[in-house]
Write a structure and sequence with these properties.
This protein is α/β, with parallel strands linked by helices. It has a single domain (7-323), classed as 3-Layer(aba) Sandwich (Aminopeptidase). 38% of the residues lie in helices and 20% in strands. The protein has 11 helices and 8 strands. It has helices spanning 7-17, 28-44, 71-74, 113-133, 152-160, 189-192, 194-202, 219-231, 247-255, 267-271, 303-323; strands at residues 48-62, 75-89, 97-101, 139-143, 164-171, 209-214, 235-240, 277-281. It has an 8-stranded mixed sheet, sandwiched between helices. Helix 1 (7-17) crosses helix 4 (113-133) and helix 8 packs across helix 11 (303-323). The longest helix is centred in the middle third of the chain and has 21 residues, at 113-133. It is globular, with a radius of gyration of 18 Å. It starts with 6 loop residues before the first helix and ends with a helix. It holds the Pfam family Peptidase_M28. Residues 85-182, 262-314 form the Peptidase M28 domain. This is Peptidase M28 domain-containing protein.
Length: 324
């Protein structure tokens, strides 16, 4: 299957989105500009897109202040939050959907080129590629709001969406380096995940791969994504979260804190509702010094490898269609 991925379109999308910080609380006008850009691109690609507003009260989440902080220092109780998710579907598509999710918001003070304009741009390219190949593909695109406040929009989407068979979350997928020693490993990872840690170390701790975080329920999907990425020249490392989907997995995260690094994006909201899900990521702050900073700008993104992420994701959307 030949997919005509456009590096030029990816570059233009990241440049258009990562001009300023965006968030429904700290930068609502910028957030609305980003939403309108995504809506326009999706409609131009032939997708039906709708806004799904929500309001939640008294929810535990995190702070979206810039910089990297230990999780206990980020915890916040949000009294009231109002946001809007974007949901897109191909007109006439039927049947259980594979969801591709990429959050649209940033932390305060960061234009968020890698986190997460890269994921949004990849999802937009997936939209173009899938529509060109199969105008009835049962794929849903979700652009959650308030990921940076504690997966708030994704929790709403996971509750409201029906007919979801699996989720692929694109989270910070644009930063790579071939410099030895540039990849860091979370504390305790070598003990908890010796195979994945050994694979990364065997290549000199280079940031030349995408990490694919999955659970047993999404293992086959993760392997399919890895195969598709390899066909487009991108290495990936599979890392299986040993927790089960659903409430039991949440409880185990309290007992084994290192596992919580594996749930740091919107896929976790679907895991918690027992939906098979995976996250594709460049590992964010474990390699990218610009993470959650004003320097997370479009010129730091590796667009060739971002194109491979988009192509691999589009390919599994289309191949999953043929096997279901």
């Amino acid at each position: 299957m030949k997919l005509d991925v456009s590096v030029a379109r990816l570059t233009a999308d990241v440049a258009a989105l990562a001009t300023e910080p965006r968030g429904s609380v700290h930068a609502p006008a910028a957030m609305d500009r980003a939403r309108r850009y995504v809506e326009d691109e999706l409609r131009a690609a032939g997708w039906s897109v709708r806004r799904d507003p929500f309001t939640v009260r008294w929810r535990f989440g995190v702070s979206d202040r810039p910089g990297a902080r230990a999780m206990p220092l980020k915890v916040r109780l949000h009294r009231r939050l109002s946001g809007t998710n974007l949901i897109a579907r191909l007109p006439g598509a039927t049947g259980p959907a594979l969801v591709v999710a990429a959050h649209l918001d940033t932390v305060q003070g960061s234009p968020g080129a890698d986190d997460n304009a890269s994921g949004v741009a990849a999802a937009l390219e997936v939209a173009r590629l899938v529509r060109a190949a199969d105008e009835h593909a049962p794929v849903t695109l979700v652009f959650p709001d308030m990921e940076e406040l504690g997966l708030i929009g994704a929790k709403v989407a996971a509750r409201r969406l029906t007919g979801v068979r699996a989720v692929v979350c694109l989270e910070s997928v644009g930063y790579y380096s071939d410099v030895p020693g540039s990849q860091r490993l979370p504390g305790g990872m070598a003990l908890a995940f010796p195979t994945a840690a050994g694979e990364v170390r065997s290549r000199g701790l280079r940031c030349d791969f995408a990490a694919v975080i999955h659970r047993r329920s999404s293992a086959a999907l993760a392997r399919a994504w890895q195969t598709a990425a390899a066909a487009h020249g991108l290495r990936s490392v599979l890392l299986r979260d040993p927790r089960p989907d659903g409430p039991a997995g949440v409880a185990l995260g309290v007992l084994v804190p290192v596992l919580n690094h594996l749930g740091r994006s919107d896929h976790a909201a679907f895991w918690n509702r027992s939906v098979p899900s995976l996250m594709v990521t460049d590992t964010a702050n474990f390699r990218n010094a610009h993470y959650h900073r004003a320097t997370d700008r479009p010129d730091t993104v590796d667009y060739a490898r971002l194109a491979a992420v988009a192509a691999a994701t589009a390919r599994i959307c289309l191949e999953e269609r043929r096997t279901t």
